[in-house]
């Protein structure tokens, strides 16, 4: 089973995209993906309540294909954020949390700690658009949290430093590396697998923000065994989300 752990739905004028569930599932069909794990852009950048609700409605249309990430658009909502996570799991059936950090608004701060603790309570893995340093802050504060570092350092805020991402994951056993990257570096995946094993690497494409075909080719050309690719491209994210294969 192939599962894309990093997909976006919704509209963003800043990012110049506007996609719905039908587009995402059609794209997954073309690529041969069985399931996609989806974040709503409205929740990510504007209104978490509205965006998470919109995603829940799209999930109902494709219950066998779409797994949802709850999204908290800021760490500063306090109890409101914790209540939203409860709603997303219990009412919407979402399976994880997505957070987005920038140099101007970092999630590596004390206000994030209750959110991490709530995710441990709910069994939510966290897909974080974060740097290796931010991951280390969060996992030092709440070691039981399970964090997937989106892009594994291969994004501008993290300076494309996937070597630092691997070293951070070596220090923190609950840090996972997600493969979608703004750079195409053929040596990342073999080096990550050698350092961590393939049980802590998660396949994602960042569709539609990145080209999923190049992201897929990058994984399939890595030279890893079929068994290792099976872990990376599906088994690991399903295990983290508690979804039966």
Characterize the structure shown.
- The protein has 245 residues and is α/β, with parallel strands linked by helices.
- It has one domain (3-241): Alpha-Beta Barrel (TIM Barrel), CATH 3.20.20.140.
- Helices cover 43% and strands 18% of the residues.
- It has 10 helices and 9 strands.
- The chain has helices spanning 21-31, 41-45, 48-61, 79-90, 113-122, 132-141, 162-171, 188-196, 212-220, 226-241; strands spanning 3-12, 17-19, 35-40, 66-71, 96-100, 126-129, 147-149, 175-178, 201-202.
- A 9-stranded mixed β-sheet has the order 2-1-3-4-5-6-7-8-9.
- α4 runs parallel beside α5 (113-122) and α6 packs parallel to α7 (162-171).
- The longest helix is centred in the last third of the chain and has 16 residues, at 226-241.
- It is globular and about 45 Å long.
